Amino acid sequence: MRKKIYGLILAAGYSSRMDDFKPLVLYDQKPFIEHIINKLAAVCDEILIVTGFNRYVLEDSVKAIYNGRPILKKIDFVHNKDFAKGMFSSVQVGLKELFPEMQKDDYVMLHLIDQPHIPEAVYEKLVLEARSSTRKVILPSYEKKAGHPIMLSKSVVEKIIDTPVSDNLRNILRNFHDEISYIEILDESIVQDVNTQEERERYLK
Q1: Three-class secondary structure assignment of the chain
Q2: With contact defined as beta carbons under 8 Å apart, do 76 and 49 qualify?
Q3: Percent of the chain topping pLDDT 90
Q4: Contact in structure between 5 and 107 (CB atoms under 8 Å)
Q5: For 69-90, what is the mean pLDDT?
Q6: Is 2's pLDDT higher than 90?
Q7: In the predicted model, what is the mean pLDDT of the chain?
Q8: b/e string for 72-106 if b means 16 or more Cβ within 10 A?
Q9: 198-202, long-range: CB within 8 Å, 24+ apart, which pairs?
Q10: Given a cut of 80, is residue 27 above it in pLDDT?
Q11: 32-41 vs 55-65: helix axis angle to the nearest 10?
């Protein structure tokens, strides 16, 4: 059976460091969220967006961007009412929504909202590895530093869901260190987070 790849976009935070609503900040004349959705749609069977702050603004904007386009059928939303508890709470909310649909060999591609500039080739490499791999976690790596997006198997998803919200993703992945496949990427974007206007000017040239 063909493995399914689910895209999960974390877009719930306040964007306080950006001084703007990050999902809709423009890069190359398109909002961050549109860049990410377009690239995920090319490799993922479904895309789930975790919302929080400005929930309806984001949902309405995405629906307007893709109005009348087939890609909209791939997109769904889940709201994290406790988004103020931090990113890990949004990870859990999104994965809880996807878990019942997942088969044993499926993967979730977890994507941060602050990386709209990752090249398409990175996504293709990660999915290619997922199609043939039995590893539980697939991580892109730039000069031996792990980056994003990351691929999580169903067993890892289950572990994350069952973990207290006070924990974090990094700690959980340490438990799977023997089950991680690192994919060498020759592009620094996978380790660059665009959280401020200064970083936007630096990275999004």
Answers
A1: CCCCEEEEEEECCCCCCCCCCHHHCEECCEEHHHHHHHHHHCCCCEEEEEEECEHHHHHHHHHHHCCCCHHHHHEEEEECCCHHHCHHHHHHHHHHHHHHHCCCCCEEEEEECCCCCCCHHHHHHHHHHHHHCCCCEEEEEECCEECCCEEEEHHHHHHHHCCCCCCCHHHHHHCCHHHEEEEECCCHHHHCCCCCHHHHHHHCC
A2: yes
A3: 94
A4: yes
A5: 97
A6: no
A7: 96
A8: bebbebbbbeebeeebbbbbbbbbebbbeebeeeb
A9: 200/18, 200/25, 200/27
A10: yes
A11: 60
Crossing angle of helices 154-161 and 87-98, in 10° steps, is: 130
Instruction: Look up the CATH number of domain 5-203.
Output: 3.90.550.10
Residue keyed to tokens 């890069």: 27
* This prediction's pTM: 0.97
Residue with tokens 């996504």: 123
Q: Which two tokens stand for residue 168?
A: 């974090």
